[in-house]
Amino acid sequence: MSKAIRFSRTGGPEVLELVDVDVGAPGPGEATVRHEAIGVNFIDIYFRTGLYPQALPSGLGQEGAGTVEAVGEGVTHVKVGDRVAYAARPNGAYAQARNVPAGILVVLPDNIGFETAAAAMLQGMTVQYLLHRTAHLKPGDTVLWHAAAGGVGLIACQWAKVLGVNLIGTVSSEEKAALAIEHGAAHVINYKRENFAEKVRELTNGEGVSVVYDSIGKDTFTGSLDCLKPLGLMVSFGNASGPVPAFAPSELQSRGSLFLTRPTLVHYVARREDLEATARSLFGVIASGEVKVAINQRYRLQDAGHAHTDLESRKTTGSSILLPH
Question: What residue numbers bound the domain in which 228 lies?
């Protein structure tokens, strides 16, 4: 038996329950992973609240790291005893052990620990594709990144600096501003004290930025568009404040023929070769020390609801993980 978090109705953190589950033998193409650490991400809240619909009852969580305990028929790229990690669907990572499609697993290098992997796979691979593939950035470019002191944001601050990209970050407190600067942000805007769109124009001498990376959604979308230079790219990759309302495409034209994309990690790592290349790129910058993963919150598996409360109330910085044992 394994302990796991399940929920049978959508709602607040109180809907999350710790239950006993029978993992069973892995089916064809599956592997059984015994978790050592589990990532907590804002997308988990989207599923818990019903913003992202799914069949219920359900597990939760899309990111974990641990050891392969068994493999099903046809599995060849991982074996029993391998240290592995994964990110993206299917949900169910909030568990001591689970069966997963083996195709989502990557073998961890010896110099990447379980906690680092669980904290970095989803967030780090997200930053990798956003900086390297969604936008074609070059040294000297200036971008805006919302929530710069969060788990994704702190990785982005460091990785942008490695690429020679000037990252302007937004944060909600002076403490978070200092954290973002410490991790490589070129400038930081406290959106509770300043109008971030006006400040971006000031920092760029009226030109605007090449790309805006916005995981906030409803509250920042229009202001984010106002930060872009003509032909700039708006990357909307999250809904922390709620989904973006419908808008007329002419809003993009009137601001300078802007581009808009709504990407997700699942599509960028759908092919095995893309998954391995993305993970290899992430592990490389972590191993080199160029990007450090800040695990600033650790919770017991049974305290997953507490982790969600802290994340939703913006009490957290860096990455959060669950420890299942």
Answer: 139-262
Judge if 255 and 299 occupy the same domain.
no
Residue 100, pLDDT score? 97
Q: What is the DSSP string of 1-35?
A: -EEEEEESS-SSGGG-EEEEE------TTEEEEEE
The CATH number linked to 6 is 3.90.180.10
Helix, strand, coil % in the chain, rounded to nearest 5: 35, 30, 40
Domain boundary among 262, 291, 310: 262
Share of the chain above pLDDT 90, in %: 94
Same structural domain, 15 and 72: yes
pLDDT digits (tens, 9 = 90+) for 6-44: 999 999 999 999 999 999 999 999 999 999 999 999 999
Residues 158 and 183 in one domain: yes
Number of domains in the chain: 2
Burial 273-297 (b: 16+ CB within 10 A, else e): eebeebbebbbebbeeeebebbbeb
pLDDT digits (tens, 9 = 90+) for 88-119: 879 999 999 999 999 999 999 999 999 999 99
pTM exceeds 0.70 for this model? yes
Closest CA to 98 of 41, 45, 27, 43: 27
